[in-house]
Design a protein that fits this description.
Length: 148
């Protein structure tokens, strides 16, 4: 999953959300990437803080999405307009090898390969998932690793 924030204390919001993944029922955080700073892509507002997390869960994809939306809401997320700045955004990128298209959820995430803020941290966790060609395709998107 991809996590990001660009309002308030974005670093703390993303770190707290990563920690909160272990509180999601039947879910365990396996690993999280380092934090990345990135300019908004197709969105408004200040610079984002982003990360990618790998979890194991016994929830189905829709249940997991609902739990992730609960984390967003607990962090004060509002949906004022499409791609509005946010206190927390958590996107389900993959659910194993599942493919799904619904009004609520598309798997894999339809734009995961188009965003440096997803590809760079995903590459840090799972290099085999991200090809050099994918990284090259987003090389023009401003992104930088944040210190630990």
């Amino acid at each position: 999953m991809a996590l990001g924030a660009n309002l308030g204390d974005a670093v703390s919001a993303v770190r707290q959300a990563i920690a909160a993944l272990n509180q999601v029922p039947h879910t365990h955080l396996v690993q999280a990437s380092p934090l990345l700073s990135s300019d908004p892509v197709d969105a408004d507002g200040p610079t984002y803080v982003n990360a990618v997390a790998h979890i194991q869960t016994h929830l189905n994809a829709v249940q997991l999405l609902e739990a992730l939306q609960d984390l967003e809401q607990a962090a004060g997320r509002t949906r004022d307009y499409h791609h509005a700045p946010r206190t927390l955004d958590v996107d389900l990128l993959f659910y194993g090898e599942a493919q799904m298209q619904s009004v609520f959820l598309s798997l894999p995430h339809p734009r995961w390969q188009q965003r440096a803020f997803v590809l760079l941290p995903l590459h840090a966790l799972c290099p085999a998932k991200v090809s050099p060609q994918m990284l090259q395709a987003v090389a023009d998107q401003a992104a930088a690793w944040l210190p630990d």
